[in-house]
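To close the chapter, one final illustration. This time we ask the reader to focus less on the individual chains and more on the assembly as a whole: which components sit near each other, and how the overall shape emerges from the parts.
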Amino acid sequence: MGFTASQRQVFTLIKSCPLAEGISMQCLRNSLKYLSFYDIRTCLQFLINEGHIYSTIDDCHFKCTN
Amino acid sequence: SSLTAEQQRKIEENRQRALARRAERLAQG
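The assembled structure is written out below.
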């Protein structure tokens, strides 16, 4: 889908979360320790802009659209 | 975890908005 390696890793984690409210920002940070907070936020913004993911109960929880 | 009806409504609303955005991006190529 034209993702960078970081974007793909963020997307894959979001997609794999079974929770109704989606994955939390804290969980993403804990699972992607080699990425900076800035990098994760940048990946999230790209995925939101492209309609791949969306925020759920607040701006810190995410699910994927497909 | 169980979500309230309001939370479920908000999530579905955001999901529909994201789907529309995805369709828009695909249409743009």
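Chain B has a mean pLDDT of 94. Residues 5-28 of chain B form the longest helix (24 residues). With these observations in hand, you are ready for the problems at the end of the chapter.
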